[in-house]
Amino acid sequence: MLVFLTLFFILILNHPTQNFSLLNYFSGEYCSYTRTPVSDSYINLGFCYMGHDRAEANTLVGESMVIYNFEAGAAIKTLRATIIKTEVVNNATIIYANSPLINSSVTIEGKKINLQIANYSDHSVIGWPLILGSF
Fold first, then answer.
1. By CB neighbour count within 10 A (0-12 exposed, 13-18 middle, 19+ buried), where does 131 fall?
2. Is-above-0.85 flag for pTM?
3. How many whole angstroms separate alpha carbon 34 and alpha carbon 47?
4. C-alpha R_g of the chain
5. In terms of CB atoms within 10 Å, which end of the chain has fewer, N or C?
6. Four-residue CA torsion sign, 23, 63, 126, 29
7. pLDDT, tens digit, for every residue of 94-130?
């Protein structure tokens, strides 16, 4: 929990304008994470839908997408990402990677991370710079 909170606050403080969107590469249940209009100190985690519109780039701090029948390796290749670390948590293989297509990032164990994929047997959750919602 402490790691999640630390990463969450790093995202709040480091939020450059992002032109990258998962919607340009994949389709699935889409979530965007935005700074709230009231304050840059809070992130709205509740904007999820099945669609093809994205949040305004000046408030966007991350995205995630649930994709069924999805090969994580295909996403790594499509996004020209380098795998930094993998781990198995419960029934998921979690991949931490870095893609040159994504501007924002977080630092985990001294490594720059800007893409996370939780790969299950029937679906995957992909997010940048990390999956902020449930996976």
1. buried
2. no
3. 8
4. 14
5. N
6. negative
7. 999 999 999 889 999 999 999 999 999 999 999 999 9
First to last CA, the chain: 14
Give the contacts of 71 (CB within 8 A, at least 6 positions apart). Answer: none
Half-sphere exposure (Cβ direction) of 111: Cα atoms closer than 13 Å: 13
Q: Residue 23, SS3?
A: helix
With b meaning 16 or more CB within 10 Å and e meaning fewer, what string describes 16-37? Answer: eebebbbbeebebebbbbbbee
State the Cα–Cα distance between residues 22 and 62, nearest whole angstrom: 10
Query: How many residues are given for the chain?
Result: 135
Letter for the amino acid at 37?
Answer: P
